Structure formats: C-alpha cells, structure tokens
Amino acid sequence: MPRTAPAGSALNLSPTRKRSRDRRVERANPLPEEFGNQTMRHYQTFLLRHGQRSNQQSNSMPLWDLLPKYGVPRNQQAALRDERGDLPVLEQRFEYLGQRYSLYVEAARVMRADGLREDVYPSEREQLVESALRYLASQHPRGFYTINTNAEAPVAGVVFSVHEIRQLLAKRGRHLTYRDIRESLYVMLRCYIEVDTADRTASFGGPIITGVQRVAATNGETVDGDNALWRVVFNSHISQAIAQCEYRQFDFDQMVRCKAALSRWLYLALVHRWRNASPVHPLRTSLQEVARDSGFLGQGQVRKAASKLDKALDELKRVGVLRDYDREEQRGSKNKLLDVKYTFHATPAFSGQVIDAHLREKRSDERDLRRRNERGASKGIFGQGDGYVWAR
After folding, report:
1. Residue 134: its pLDDT value, please?
2. Phi/psi zone of residue 44: left (φ > 0), alpha (ψ -120 to 50 degrees), beta?
3. Does position 73 have pLDDT exceeding 60, yes or no?
4. Host domain of residue 176
5. Torsion sign over Cα 162, 165, 171, 174
6. Which residues of 145-170 are buried (b: 16+ CB within 10 A; e: fewer)?
7. How many domains are contained in the chain?
C-alpha cells in the first residue's frame, strides 16, 4: 500500500507518480579563462566591512536553497521502504513568497559498503556537501561558468578535492569521511527533484548536481585518492541564477557552525525572507509554517516538533543570528497544543549582514564591478568607501 504522512502534514509519498528524467551526465571542460570570466567575477566578489574576510562569505539562491529537499533523515528512511526495499517518490508542499509549490524527490540508488544497492533520499549529509561545493565555487579560482559542455546552455560548476571539503567542514565542526563525501556526490547526481507551482504554470527539475567527473590526481595519488581533483556541474537552476545575478551573500562560517540541518535551513530562510532585519523589525512566523516549508517537522506530534524547532532557534542564538525569540502557544480542547507563534529578534551583527547583502545587490552592477576590477584586481580589492571594500 502507498504510504502517506499523518493528517495535516504537508508530506506525502506518491509511489505511482511517473517521472520523465534525462539521466545523461553533463560534462564540462571549462577553459582557463572561464574560471575568471565576468560572470564568475561578479559571483565571487563580495561587499565587506573593514575587518571582514571574503573567505567567510558564500552565495545563496532564492527558492533553491529553501526547497525542503533534505528533510528525511537517513535513520528514518527504512520505515518508508516497500516490500522490495524501494523508496517511493516523496512529495512536499510548501510556500515561498506567497506562492504555493510542490516538490517531488525521487530517491537515488547507491551502492552500500556491503556491495548491495539501495534507494536513499538526499538528507543532512548532502545538505552539508552541497553547501561546501557552492562555497568553493564562490571562491576564486574554483568556480567556473562555461559554454564548453554537452549541455544545451552554459553551465556553472566547481573544481575541488574531497580533502578540501573535509577540511572546510571539519574546521567548522562538521566531520565527514572521504566515503561520506563521495557517496553524497552520487546521491545528489542520481536523485531527481521536480518543482511545480500549484497551478502548474511553472516548473523545473533535474538532479541536485547534473555532472560529476574525476579530472586529475595530485601529488602522485591515484584518481580515487583523497587529494584527486573532481569537477561538479550544478543544476541548471543554479547556473541560470549565477548568470542572472540572482543570489545573496551570507556568512558561510556562521551557517555551517549550526549543528542541526533545520538550523541551517532556518538560517538561509532568514537570509532571504528577513530583508528588513533590525531591532525595530522583528519577524513573525509559526510552527505550522516552518513545518510546511522546511520539510524537517512534517511528521510526528506537534509537541515534539515544537521542541525540535525551539532547539534550532536556540542554536541560531548561539551562533549570533537571533538576539532572542518569543513564543505563544495556541491550544485547543483538553489543552492540546495546536501551533506555536514565534517572533524573532535579530542581533545587530545579523542586521548588519542583511544591510551588507542589500548594498551588494544595489551596487554590484556589471559596469561598477568592471571599473573596480580595472583598479584593483591584482590585489583582490576592488575599491572602497563608506567603510566597505569589494573583495574576492
């Protein structure tokens, strides 16, 4: 029998939904100048206050980074398998900026350590690895934007080593093995996601990453070594966002130091949705809204979901995003907890990040960046004023 989520949940599992997927792996062979072309210079240039470091910054894409695609933990996926061990298509309904969407996630089939294959949904581990890949693409000269590919349109991607990702995450308290990272790459490549608006007037889909290649070995290692170089091609939605400058800078260090996957999702949600964050502009939301939109709280008792959300908010206080938050419980008959209303209060530091992101969007038109590049590209500093510098 098809499995469905409890009544009132946004989560459904739809094993009969048919997919039409293109399983071709996109291969990109970027030229040296495509690691530093105008598109990537724009993407890799951040507006910083004096004393900030550009290697703390990354870029987040609206909608894409808020898709509830990582919400089913590995340790909960076994209960969703059918008699053959297969996972059905996961459907998650959510809202973004007042528009209703449906997300469909088809599981990836990967090989386990014992040599058997099984279906897995992308989860917390893939969330971390995708964040690390996108961070590295934001740092010159790792990211590229190229037309030298078998895809129908230009693509963006990144060249990296697994050792780099392991170090990048370990320095921020997240520890993954080489096998973890390599398997995550193939989970993101072999899963399939599709996003539809409620009225089916717009949609996009594909794997989380559309191409993975091992391209070189370093220091005499084999191509499977920890320091071997890999090349990843991002989903076409990401490539298009990079081409159209539809991204927002944020503090990667601060986000990844959050231990819980829900905390990291909330962090990016606040980056995009709390665009007037300040002591006089709190943000209001509810447990039901977070459960609907994040995918992390869609099943289970309301009381347990509220406790999990409270812990995630406490973590955002610990890393310096929230100064405090207020909660108001909504109860029904027999004092049953129905919902919790939240009011978030930003720290001055997070309010400053929001202002910085606004200014970057306002000032970073192509002509402005070209003038800054001509003045200071050799130093990595592209002009300054008002207590800010442009840097990459």
Report:
1. 98
2. alpha
3. yes
4. 28-375+382-391
5. negative
6. bbeebebeebbbbbbbbbbbbbebbe
7. 1
User: Do residues 23 and 106 touch, judged by C-beta distance below 8 A?
Assistant: no
Residue 377 has pLDDT above 70, yes or no: no
In terms of Cβ atoms closer than 10 Å to its own Cβ (0-12, 13-18, 19+), residue 56 is: middle
What is the rounded distance in angstroms from the CA atom of residue 214 to the CA atom of residue 231?
Answer: 6
The rounded distance, in Å, linking the Cα atoms of 248 and 384 is: 20
Token pair in block for residue 68: 């509830």
Whole-angstrom CA distances from 109 to 11, 32, 71, 212, 258 are 21, 34, 18, 16, 29
CA distance 173 to 256: 8
User: Is 16 inside a domain boundary?
Assistant: no
Q: How far apart are CA 227 and CA 384, in angstroms?
A: 37
CA angle 81, 85, 90 (to 5 degrees): 40
> What is the C-alpha separation between 43 and 144, in angstroms, rounded?
10
Indicate whether 12 belongs to any domain.
Answer: no
Give the span between the Cα atoms of 127 and 184, in whole angstroms: 9
Separation between Cα atoms, residue 270 and residue 144, nearest integer Å: 28
Domain assignment of residue 106, yes or no: yes
Type of residue at 66: L
- The residue type at 117: R
The answer to whether residue 15 sits within a structural domain is no
| CB-facing half-sphere around the CA of 92: CA atoms within 13 A | 29
Task: Give the pLDDT confidence of 278-297 residue by residue, as tens digits.
Answer: 888 999 999 999 999 999 99
27-39 tens-digit pLDDT:
999 999 999 999 9
